[in-house]
Amino acid sequence: MLTPVDAYRRRLADDMAVRGCWPEDSPWVRSAVEALPRHRFAPERVWVWDGEEYLPVDRATDPRGWAGAVYAGSYDSTVIQVTDGLPTSSLSCVSVVADMLDSLMPEPGHRVLELGTGAGWNAALLGLRAGAGRVASVEFDAGLADAARERIRSAGAEVSVRVGDGSLGLRDGAPYDRVIATYAVEEVPWAWVAQTRPGGRIVTPWGRLGHVALTVAGDGRSASGWVQGLGMFMPSRYAAGPGPGFHEIRAAVPPETESPFSRDPSALTDGNALFALRVLLPDVRIITESGRDGVRALLHDGRSSWATLAGTAGRPAVARQGGARRLADEVARAWRRWERAGAPSLHDFGMTRTPDEQYIWSGDRETGPRWAPG
C-alpha cells in the first residue's frame, strides 16, 4: 500500500505529464526531480492558506495533509516559512522549477550560482546536473541556510551554501557559466551580469509575474533575452513590502465612480494581456476571480486606490473605483496601447540590462519598440 507521500508524489508526476510540464528538451530535469524528491527538502512543518490566514501542517500529526501540501499540484508552491502572517519562503511549484531549469540550460561541469537557497531543493537539482562542487548558493536567512545545507548534504549533493545578500552575487567562483535566482527582482542586479562569463546565461523571476532568460554579450557589457513564462514569485527580502492588499484598501476607501468598461474582464485570465499590463502599469496589482456570474478583476496600487471590473454574460462590463487614481481608466488606456502595438504575447517580450539601465522590448531587440510604464 502506498504511503501518503508516495501517492501524492505519483499523482503530481502524472499531472505534470498530462499538462506537458516536463521539458522535452531537458529530460534530465525529470530524472533529477525523481532522484531528489521534493519531500526530502520540505521541513516537518509547512503552511497552507485557509482563505483567511496561513495555518501550520505538521508531518508528525497530519502526515496526509503534509504530503498533500508538499505535492499539491503542478502549479502549486509549498510555503515553508511564515513571518508576521506572511509567507517568506517556499518550495516553488514543480512546473516553474522545471521551466526555469530548462531555461537555464546548465550542462555538466558548468559553474552555477544560485541566489535564494530556500529549502535547498533547486540547489541540489543543479548540483546533480552540474556536478560535485560546481554549484554555489546564497541565502539571506541564516536559519534557512543551515537547514538547507543539512538537507543537501543528506541527499548526497555537494553544493556550497553561503549566507549573504543575493543582490551582490558571489565573487568567489566568478565568472559563472550560469546564474539563477529563485526570488523576484524588479531590476536585475548588475553584479549578476558582471559575475557571469560572456555567453553565460542568467535566469530570474521579474516583477513577481514571469521569468526571463538573459545571455551575457561577448563584451560583457550587457545581457539580453526573452521572457520565458509566467509564475508568481516572492520578492527579495530587501524589497519594500507589498503594502496593503485590495480588501484593506477597499474597506478604507469608498467607491466614487461607476461606469461601463469596454473590455471583457475574463481576458485578464490570459497571461498575455496580464503580462503587458504588468509592463505598462508596474505598480498595479491585478487579481481575477471566477464565479457563477463571470469573471471579476480586482485592481489596487498597494497604497490608496482600487477598482473592480465585473463582467456578466450578455451584459456590458462595469468598473467601480475609488481613491486618488482611476485604476480602471489606467488599465483601459494601457490595454489600448498594447492592442495598438499588435497585442504581442508574453513570449514576444524581452529584456536588456546594461550597466546604466534596464528596459523591456518586444519583437526584435535592436529594432522593436521599447515599453516604458505609463
What does this 3D model show about the protein?
- The protein has ten helices and 19 strands.
- It has helices at residues 4-18, 27-35, 63-70, 94-104, 121-130, 142-154, 190-194, 246-252, 271-280, 327-340; strands spanning 45-49, 54-58, 78-83, 86-91, 112-115, 135-139, 159-163, 176-181, 196-206, 210-216, 223-230, 257-261, 285-291, 294-300, 306-310, 317-322, 349-353, 358-362, 370-371.
- A ten-stranded mixed beta sheet has the order 7-6-5-8-9-10-11-17-18-19, sandwiched between helices. The chain has a five-stranded antiparallel beta sheet with strand order 12-16-15-14-13. The protein has a two-stranded antiparallel ribbon with strand order 1-2.
- Helix 1 runs parallel beside helix 3 (63-70).
- The termini are far apart.
- The mean pLDDT is 92.
Layout of helices and strands, plus pairs?
Blueprint: H1 4-18, H2 27-35, E1 45-49, E2 54-58, H3 63-70, E3 78-83, E4 86-91, H4 94-104, E5 112-115, H5 121-130, E6 135-139, H6 142-154, E7 159-163, E8 176-181, H7 190-194, E9 196-206, E10 210-216, E11 223-230, H8 246-252, E12 257-261, H9 271-280, E13 285-291, E14 294-300, E15 306-310, E16 317-322, H10 327-340, E17 349-353, E18 358-362, E19 370-371
Parallel strand pairs: 5-6, 5-8, 6-7, 8-9
Antiparallel strand pairs: 1-2, 3-4, 9-10, 10-11, 11-17, 12-16, 13-14, 14-15, 15-16, 17-18, 18-19
